[in-house]
Design goal:
Chains A, B: It catalyses: [pyruvate, water dikinase]-phosphate + phosphate + H(+) = [pyruvate, water dikinase] + diphosphate; [pyruvate, water dikinase] + ADP = [pyruvate, water dikinase]-phosphate + AMP + H(+). 2 copies of one chain form a homodimer. Chain A has 2 domains: about 100 residues, Rossmann fold; about 150 residues, 3-Layer(aba) Sandwich (Rossmann fold), CATH 3.40.50. Helix content of chain A is about 45%, strand content about 15%. In chain A, helix 2 runs parallel beside helix 3 and helix 6 packs across helix 10. Chain A is elongated. About 0% of the residues of chain A have low confidence. At the A-B interface, helix 1, helix 4, helix 5, helix 6 and helix 8 of A face helix 1, helix 4, helix 5, helix 6 and helix 8 of B.
């Protein structure tokens, strides 16, 4: 039995998708310095499933000599009980807050099987989300600017500045219709905005990135190319940023941000409302 | 001052993206029966910002006669203090669990500004995620099957069965490379799998949906078309499901599931490992 204090086994367990347990668990682990071997167990709705899980917990304990951590949310009492009796540190991600809310609001909670946020039988929500994803796919990477009047926002930036993942995330999470348009050589040389953008100026938002990071990303795609060269990256970024400033287009630097952070910051800076809650 | 007990103002507040507060808050609200007017305040990192927020809280309290609910996560003590003194029911989404972990693990937490899960300076994670998104975009809706050998999974289903949003979600959240292929008339008439799929049988996964739901979704796209007709939908679904069974291709019915749930169930049924944690 080899003890390892540097790393712990961590399980996310739910009778739903376990997305909530994962999201919260990641942030909680971020507050501590050990590294984690993470594993997710969604839809633990039967005794068989929870018993399999408990076996895995006990194996982990025996193997590592450390109790694994379990972040869980389970409504069914019998299943919950089997889990919390195991040799793990078990953390119910909802319990304490539900109790506080119950007390503050003087309302009885009705525990429900967890549904992830976008599950609303209200099918408008469904259609809004699908429509946003389809619109955004159809307007990715400058494929077309037709229907730009329906866009919630138009992202501009050089190749590899993060436009596509940001656009898709904004469509999927916020239900927004995003056009993204890459600055290519001609635009960069001409240092101009397409005339099509003129009447949509208020929708324009720029992405920029550090030259060094851009080179790294482009190298990963086309190693040794001019396209990836430090000189080319600097040139493109300098002129695009100059253009953003000249045209008073708001922009952010994506170098050290995740797709989630870029999207949230754009939403905030552009004062955009989510279409999905 | 008009009192409204049916609906409450709810604020998600964080010095990060507030994704964790939103995710957890949505599930918590799901346990109670009132409806919520939700608003998110990300990146509350300055006294100015928290003071604006507190003004909004006090306005809500005066306007509705009910304390709004605040689900928050804030590291900076001065900012936190301003918030918790406001006329809101404030819920720190991390505090209780961090204390329990600290006690169980006998480790001191190091509070950090929240970073959403995919922010790891480790750039492999970044590249894996981007590569998965690009691969999946390039293989959406049967555009091409070139490179199918690199796919983690191949989704099959009739038009509008949920393939595209599911594929993109799996790429973005799990870092998986997804091919999705729509069954079109010829395949349906011929009731056959493309020969290209033969050596990748183990990667095939089917999506199906209730005929009534499919009609509803297709009506929303092409109202009154044969494509959307109940008869056409039934015909396509019957033959595709027969094909799935005959070829022993695992499949799920997406009718009452969110994109998150579909993706998580597929991951589970197909025994796929996430590429991103």
């Amino acid at each position: 039995m080899q003890i390892n204090t540097e790393s712990r086994d961590v399980f996310y367990v739910s009778d739903g998708t376990a997305i909530t347990c994962e999201t919260l668990g990641h942030v909680l682990l971020g507050q501590f310095s050990f590294s984690a071997n993470e594993k997710t167990f969604p839809f633990v709705e039967s005794l068989d499933k929870v018993e399999d899980l408990v076996r895995e917990i006990e194996n982990s304990f025996t193997r590592t000599g450390e109790k694994p951590l379990v972040f869980f949310s389970i409504v069914l009492p019998d299943i919950r009980q089997v889990l919390v009796k195991s040799s793990a540190h078990c953390y119910d991600v909802l319990e304490d807050l539900v109790k506080k809310m119950q007390n503050d609001l003087q309302m009885e909670p009705q525990p429900k099987l967890q549904r992830s946020r976008s599950v609303k039988r209200d099918s408008d929500t469904y259609f809004d989300r699908i429509a946003a994803i389809e619109y955004t796919l159809a307007h990715d990477d400058g494929i077309t600017l037709k229907g730009i009047e329906k866009a919630d926002i138009v992202l501009l930036g050089v190749s590899r500045s993060g436009k596509t993942p940001t656009s898709l995330y904004m469509a999927m999470q916020f239900g927004l219709r995003v056009v993204n348009y890459p600055f290519i050589d001609d635009d960069i040389k001409a240092m101009r905005l397409l005339p099509e953008f003129e009447i949509h100026r208020h929708k324009l938002f720029g992405l920029t990135i550090d030259a060094q990071r851009l080179t790294e990303i482009r190298e990963n795609r086309l190693s040794g190319s001019d396209y990836a060269s430090d000189e080319q990256c600097r040139l493109e970024l300098a002129s695009v940023e100059a253009l953003f400033r000249r045209e008073a287009i708001p922009y952010i630097n994506t170098s050290s941000l995740s797709v989630e952070e870029i999207s949230t910051r754009i939403l905030e800076k552009a004062g955009l409302k989510r279409r999905l809650v």
